[in-house]
Design brief:
Largest sheet: 5 strands, mixed
Shape: globular
Oligomer: single chain
Structural class: alpha+beta
Distance between the termini: 83 Å
Strand content: 25-35%
Amino acid sequence: MRIDGLASGLSACQPLLLGAALLLSSGCSGPATTPQARGDVHRGHLSLGPDSDAFLPCGASRPLQVVADPVLGERLSAEYLALVGEPYEEAFLQARGRRLASGGGVGERLQVEQILDLRAAGADDCH
């Protein structure tokens, strides 16, 4: 008798359990949100040209190679060229991004995730 009572009680709860399970699982299956930039802020001088690019962080002695996703890379190049008179001239860049270790014959790189400020280089940029 107790087993029958338990079985009928469970069958009455099944729609509630199923609804709760669907509600909980739907939170994980929704559209992914756009990830926010999580890197550190980097400041320094940027130099771009057809054959190479370099970002010299404030206070550093070695430049970093600049890498970015294609859309952001095109935007960075376009804004840079609009600022400077010729390729390889310095501009000041403040960007959110991550330093990537060197490897595979490539030196240390800066993965740019977000451009915070890009302007003509000045003498007091890094102060």
